[in-house]
């Protein structure tokens, strides 16, 4: 019986593929017989694509840039002056500094006196941040940390405060206010236009290929449309309503498939599979990020993963299983598969670098992160992958600043790295060649500036609306669909869509910065800012490098460049942004509020254990 069912399934798949093949062959023959139809179709859709792109992105970008991020109130802290200060984060600094979450303007209170931290099960703990006046809980001195229950008296340098719960009616009122004011834009209009964009793109690529149009083009775009709609419907089934980030990511991924179909159609299904795996990674990582305790438990495992991925690349390269591309030995070849472990190492690195508030003030923790950074950048330098090394370094600066806020230390680290880069350049002089070409590409049009000159010429020939997907010539230049992909976008799709692609990445970064103001934990804030900084800096290196405004570093355009590892990493990094989206019911990476409010304990929580500050 099972065998018969399998046979029926196989026959059904064969019939579907046969039907698609017949349609493709018929369409290819039709296009070959009527070339004027192809010309008219291309002429029309060239102008239609920018309009559709604006319709797809305008609502999502506007929503991400303008929606207010109202803080959530988790508890109140009663102050000596009789006022109650709302605690709007899971992790709150109490101190005299104006930058503290709760400002206590008393001379006996240190600038950063204590941290009051909430666990996901609504249990609170106080951490003494090496204050001079000390911390006391219900009259007992706190050594390191101690659990705090609602109604407990917390004394900071003799200044007494009381932790109070949020009244149920206040919770309901605030929740309703946030739902009314932070409602995400409806995704269905953008999804409809994106589907139309994808169908027309497949048609344009078929028209450009003519009689030689492969079945892979319509099949890949059909699968993309099915997966996209399946994802949106599945998320709506679990009552999630925020899809702006995913709409942007699917739009950019559509451009990636189009670029791949134009430059390397034989890689189209590989890129599609990478997109599907990236989406799975996005969902799995987003769900994993829901539980902050679980996240904290594997941070150093992820640090080991980052070093392991880069170390394995070096070892396999030495064993002959690696491959050097454009001077960097950062590829691993296993049979028909090739991938860049350094792309996945970016996710592990950010995961390890982000930290919760109770760990931010430990110098040992920051020192270990600095050691991790040195190991990662050192491995990348040995691979001669200096573009990725620069990305790691900028990400380190963002994380280190968010963790410490110490500009002096960061300046010294930057100076040391610049000196180290000078030593590396003296050892590997071919790297200087790229800097020698920088700004002089036209003077070396047939040598060092060959790629940039062709990229700028192709981009200029595309004008505002492009020459049509699949109709360009830049794909004949090496790395056109990876390092120079911005030139391909401008040539085939036009400057409007090229700029919109860049604006999409910038929008994600602006959203992350705005959302972090209402972030629940410093881990989510640091991870989101680091991920978006990485995406923006990588985009800048790719775009400005391809047009000779920066040295050509050989890095990819997130979501757009042809490359499975890059696609996988881009979707994985997006999960960190999704975890900062605290709008009601917007993100699957945030648990829905419980229908029944948990009981409020005045006094000590039952079975509440002491908090280990080194846990």
TrEMBL record:
<dbReference type="GO" id="GO:0015648">
    <property type="term" value="F:lipid-linked peptidoglycan transporter activity"/>
</dbReference>
<feature type="transmembrane region" description="Helical">
    <location>
        <begin position="523"/>
        <end position="544"/>
    </location>
</feature>
<feature type="transmembrane region" description="Helical">
    <location>
        <begin position="215"/>
        <end position="235"/>
    </location>
</feature>
<dbReference type="Pfam" id="PF01098">
    <property type="entry name" value="FTSW_RODA_SPOVE"/>
</dbReference>
<dbReference type="GO" id="GO:0051301">
    <property type="term" value="P:cell division"/>
</dbReference>
<keyword id="KW-0472">Membrane</keyword>
<dbReference type="InterPro" id="IPR008984">
    <property type="entry name" value="SMAD_FHA_dom_sf"/>
</dbReference>
<feature type="transmembrane region" description="Helical">
    <location>
        <begin position="185"/>
        <end position="209"/>
    </location>
</feature>
<feature type="transmembrane region" description="Helical">
    <location>
        <begin position="271"/>
        <end position="289"/>
    </location>
</feature>
<dbReference type="InterPro" id="IPR001182">
    <property type="entry name" value="FtsW/RodA"/>
</dbReference>
<feature type="transmembrane region" description="Helical">
    <location>
        <begin position="12"/>
        <end position="32"/>
    </location>
</feature>
<dbReference type="InterPro" id="IPR000253">
    <property type="entry name" value="FHA_dom"/>
</dbReference>
<feature type="transmembrane region" description="Helical">
    <location>
        <begin position="453"/>
        <end position="473"/>
    </location>
</feature>
<dbReference type="GO" id="GO:0005886">
    <property type="term" value="C:plasma membrane"/>
</dbReference>
<keyword id="KW-1133">Transmembrane helix</keyword>
<feature type="transmembrane region" description="Helical">
    <location>
        <begin position="407"/>
        <end position="432"/>
    </location>
</feature>
<protein>
    <submittedName>
        <fullName>FtsW/RodA/SpoVE family cell cycle protein</fullName>
    </submittedName>
</protein>
<dbReference type="GO" id="GO:0008360">
    <property type="term" value="P:regulation of cell shape"/>
</dbReference>
<dbReference type="GO" id="GO:0032153">
    <property type="term" value="C:cell division site"/>
</dbReference>
<dbReference type="Pfam" id="PF00498">
    <property type="entry name" value="FHA"/>
</dbReference>
<feature type="transmembrane region" description="Helical">
    <location>
        <begin position="556"/>
        <end position="577"/>
    </location>
</feature>
<feature type="transmembrane region" description="Helical">
    <location>
        <begin position="247"/>
        <end position="265"/>
    </location>
</feature>
<feature type="transmembrane region" description="Helical">
    <location>
        <begin position="38"/>
        <end position="58"/>
    </location>
</feature>
<keyword id="KW-0133">Cell shape</keyword>
<feature type="domain" description="FHA">
    <location>
        <begin position="92"/>
        <end position="142"/>
    </location>
</feature>
<feature type="transmembrane region" description="Helical">
    <location>
        <begin position="368"/>
        <end position="401"/>
    </location>
</feature>
<feature type="transmembrane region" description="Helical">
    <location>
        <begin position="493"/>
        <end position="511"/>
    </location>
</feature>
<feature type="transmembrane region" description="Helical">
    <location>
        <begin position="301"/>
        <end position="324"/>
    </location>
</feature>
<keyword id="KW-0812">Transmembrane</keyword>
């Amino acid at each position: 019986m099972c065998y018969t069912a399998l046979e029926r399934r196989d026959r059904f798949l064969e019939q579907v593929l046969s039907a698609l093949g017949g349609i493709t062959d018929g369409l290819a023959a039709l296009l070959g017989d009527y070339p004027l139809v192809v010309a008219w179709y291309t002429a029309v859709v060239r102008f239609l694509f920018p309009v559709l792109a604006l319709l797809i992105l305008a609502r999502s970008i506007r929503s991400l840039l303008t929606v207010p991020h109202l803080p959530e109130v988790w508890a109140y802290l009663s102050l000596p002056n009789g006022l109650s200060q709302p605690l709007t984060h899971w992790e709150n600094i109490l101190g005299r500094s104006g930058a503290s979450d709760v400002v206590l303007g008393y001379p006996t209170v240190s600038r950063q006196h204590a941290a009051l931290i909430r666990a996901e099960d609504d249990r609170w703990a106080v951490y003494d941040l090496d204050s001079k006046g000390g911390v006391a809980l219900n009259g007992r001195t706190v050594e390191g940390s101690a659990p705090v229950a609602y109604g407990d008296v917390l004394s900071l340098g003799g200044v007494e405060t009381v932790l109070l719960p949020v009244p149920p009616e206040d919770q309901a009122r605030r929740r309703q206010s946030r739902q009314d004011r932070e409602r995400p834009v409806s995704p269905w209009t953008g999804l409809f236009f994106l589907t139309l964009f994808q169908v027309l793109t497949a048609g344009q690529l078929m028209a450009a290929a003519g009689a030689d149009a492969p079945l892979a083009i319509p099949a890949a775009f059909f699968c993309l449309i099915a997966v996209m709609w399946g994802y949106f419907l599945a998320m709506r089934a679990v009552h999630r309503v925020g899809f702006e980030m995913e709409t942007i990511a699917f739009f950019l991924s559509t451009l990636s498939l189009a670029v791949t179909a134009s430059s390397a159609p034989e890689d189209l299904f590989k890129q599609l599979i990478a997109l599907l795996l990236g989406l799975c990674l996005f969902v799995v990582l987003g769900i994993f990020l829901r539980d902050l305790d679980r996240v904290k438990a594997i941070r150093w495992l992820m640090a080991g993963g980052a070093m392991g991925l880069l170390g394995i690349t070096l070892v396999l390269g030495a064993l002959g299983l690696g491959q050097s591309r454009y001077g960097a030995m950062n590829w691993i070849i296993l049979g028909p598969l090739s991938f860049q472990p350094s792309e996945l190492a970016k996710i592990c690195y950010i995961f390890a670098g982000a930290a919760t508030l109770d760990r931010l003030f430990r110098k040992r923790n920051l020192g270990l992160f600095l050691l991790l950074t040195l190991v990662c950048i050192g491995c990348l330098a040995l691979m001669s992958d200096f573009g990725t090394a620069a990305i790691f370094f900028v990400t380190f600066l963002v994380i280190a600043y968010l963790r410490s806020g110490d500009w002096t230390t960061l300046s010294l680290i930057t100076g040391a790295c610049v000196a180290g880069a000078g030593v590396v350049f003296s050892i590997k002089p071919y790297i200087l060649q790229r800097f020698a070409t920088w700004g002089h590409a036209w003077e070396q049009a047939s040598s060092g500036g060959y790629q940039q000159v062709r990229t700028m010429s192709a981009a200029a020939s595309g004008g505002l609306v492009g020459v049509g997907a699949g109709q360009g010539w830049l794909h004949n230049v090496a790395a056109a669909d990876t390092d120079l992909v911005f030139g391909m976008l401008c040539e085939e799709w036009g400057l409007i869509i090229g700029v919109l692609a860049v604006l999409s990445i910038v929008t994600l970064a602006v959203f992350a910065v705005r959302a972090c103001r209402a972030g629940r934990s410093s881990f989510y804030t640091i991870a989101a800012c680091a991920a978006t900084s990485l995406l923006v800096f990588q985009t800048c290196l790719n775009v400005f490098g391809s047009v000779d405004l920066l040295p050509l570093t050989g890095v990819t355009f997130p979501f757009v460049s042809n490359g499975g590892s890059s696609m996988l990493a881009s979707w994985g990094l997006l999960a960190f942004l999704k975890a900062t989206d605290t709008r009601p019911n917007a993100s699957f990476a945030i648990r829905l509020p419980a229908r029944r409010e948990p009981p409020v304990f005045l006094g000590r929580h039952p079975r509440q254990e002491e908090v280990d500050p080194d846990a």
